[in-house]
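Handoff note, outgoing to incoming analyst
You'll be picking up this chain. Sequence as last confirmed:
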Amino acid sequence: MAQYQLVMHSGPTPGKTFLLEGDVLTIGREASNAIAINDAEISRKHSQLVAQGGKYVLTDLGSTNGTFVNGQRLTGQHVLQPGEVISLGEQISLLFEAITVIDPNATMLSSKPPVVAPRPQPQPQAPVVQPQPVAYAGQSPVGPSPVYVAPPPVEKKSNRTMIIIVIAGILLLLCLCVVGVYLYFFAPCQLIQTFMGGVCP
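Most recent structure output, in case you need it:
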């Protein structure tokens, strides 16, 4: 529910607040007015505020020095908006403000204590194993340490067998060469000496 007030910015009592209560309020120099301002520039019945639909409508009552809203002189009715400045003559100004009032019956307080949701229990976490620092002799390596990969095991038996086969092949080839040379050059000569009694050239 909104309520309104007028705050005097300039005039005989700057900072004074006038709470607007009632359907019809008059502003003037006489003490009988709802908002009485004792100043020579204000008429005895200067202006009037009428509540309509939760708003206040301002009307000048034929004052000598006039009623102004935001610097404009009123010639009829004006629905006031919060923040507007009402001037009465040249020296007096009032700020129209809205006040928010809390209805005490609008909120029902419960006598029961509020229900607080249980906090979730933290789950135990596995301990984090920190890596142990490695001590280096001399200068530390710039990059990560290379990973040593062992070479595949060498099959010594296969190499030995291959070597033996190669040597045996060479020896066999030599033997064949010797036998071939012998058969080509010396075997005919021996046959001639044996069977014909001749002499080899």
